[in-house]
Write a sequence for this structure.
């Protein structure tokens, strides 16, 4: 699956606990999961990490992301990287323990 949104990972919107609980359930079930922009922030928070407003400011544009061996396996891709458009003002400040 994938999770993406124009929402902010550093805020505490009223619907966020339900989403975080759902993401925790997917992880417990060992389901493949990809988070882009807000999605990776939500997954981070669901697993105990910390998301903050990016001190470097808003970032936007086409970004190249390296593919880990695990990501290549889960996504069934052989390429070494993915080019993905991103636009975000938040950043992961502390990774979850199991990241």
């Amino acid at each position: 699956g994938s999770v993406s949104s124009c929402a902010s990972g550093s805020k505490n919107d009223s619907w966020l606990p339900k989403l975080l609980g759902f993401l925790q359930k997917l992880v417990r079930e060992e389901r493949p999961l990809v988070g882009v922009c807000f999605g990776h922030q939500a997954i981070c928070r669901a697993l105990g990490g910390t998301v903050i407003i990016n001190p470097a400011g808003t970032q936007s544009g086409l970004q190249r992301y390296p593919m880990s061996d695990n990501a290549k396996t889960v996504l069934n891709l052989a390429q070494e990287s993915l080019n993905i458009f991103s636009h975000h003002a938040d950043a992961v400040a502390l990774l979850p323990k199991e990241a």
Summary: DSSP finds three helices and six strands in the chain. The first strand starts at residue 2 and ends at 3. The longest helix spans residues 16-28.
